[in-house]
Amino acid sequence: MAMRLILLGPPGAGKGTQAxxxxxxxxxxxxxxxDILRQAVADGTPLGKEAKGHMxxxxxxxxxxxxxxxxxxxxxPDCAKGYILDGFPRTVAxxxxxxxxxxxxxxxxxxxxxxxVEEEALVERLSGRRxxxxxxxxxxxxxxxxxxxxxxxxxxxxxxxxxxxxxxxVRRRLSVYRQQTEPLLAYYKGAGLLKxxxxxxxxxxxAEQIDRIIGHAR
Length: 218
Ligand code: AMP
Known about the structure:
Oligomer: single chain
Bound molecules: adenosine monophosphate
Structural class: alpha/beta
Strand order of the largest sheet: 2-3-1-4-8
């Protein structure tokens, strides 16, 4: 019973947090292009070298790069039972490429869940965010503290601020979102896949809403 899902929303909407919860509950992988790209940067691979400049500026990595990356990832055996895409697609060209890929594989999407959060709340969340340097789990200096300061609850890794979570880069990322990613709301509405919710409130309550929206695997 596969479940193929996109979490759509601006940076800071909680996509990563929610994707990890759904992934744990449903036993399907979370696929975050941001996490894959950050790992490539940390490893100094050719992909990482190409992506780094774009990421540091808060700009998008070119479509063909992330599309290639997703093509490889979706071919992995663990995706047979479904997946949660977190941070992909981010442009209409990426969404069209994904449709073509999934059409060819005969594995259409089940849901696109859009998470809405007010802009000022996004800036506050992102600039207070801390991320585990090892497993990428997100925390927040006010809203989501680890049990021990500076240490990840899940894996014991050190918590760091992502370079692109500084305020001026955050503003840039939000404007990129509005210009390049927001058109996907209309795209997926047209496809009859869009489900929307407000991503403000308790993490667990938002997770329950998403659970209700996506229902049981098909
Ligand atoms: P995220 O962790 O999803 O906020 O992604 C961090 C950064 O990685 C973004 O600001 C982009 O530079 C890059 N990135 C992640 N996913 C994509 C994507 N689907 N298309 C283009 N760039 C991406």
